[in-house]
Amino acid sequence: MKQKHTPGPWLILTEPVQGEDCHMVGGDGGDEVVADIRPGHDSEDTAKANAHLISSAPEMYAALKGAQECIRKALPLIHDPDDPIHNGAQVHCGEWLDEINEAIAHAEGREIGMEVEA
Q1: Which domain holds residue 92?
Q2: Does this model's pTM top 0.90?
Q3: Is residue 99 part of a domain?
């Protein structure tokens, strides 16, 4: 799937706005504002934590895509119905793959289970 989001890394720039720290998450070396996070009803610590979480999105997305591919390739290799340890690992990895697929679909703005465009 072709990347549609602003390329990472995303950086955080904090500036005072009307007496509060405003955390702007910027992509493309900080030239493009991706998110503007202000404390509002949340504490300053929560706003700052939200900015860090949002700014890590490109790296987390890339990591999930890598984990998705790794688990997809590993599942057939660890399937052995006569081996309860490996069979249990396959079930556990399959559940993680489902969660990873859902998270990636959410990040890409797709419905769960919707096919990915080439």
Answers
A1: 59-107
A2: no
A3: yes
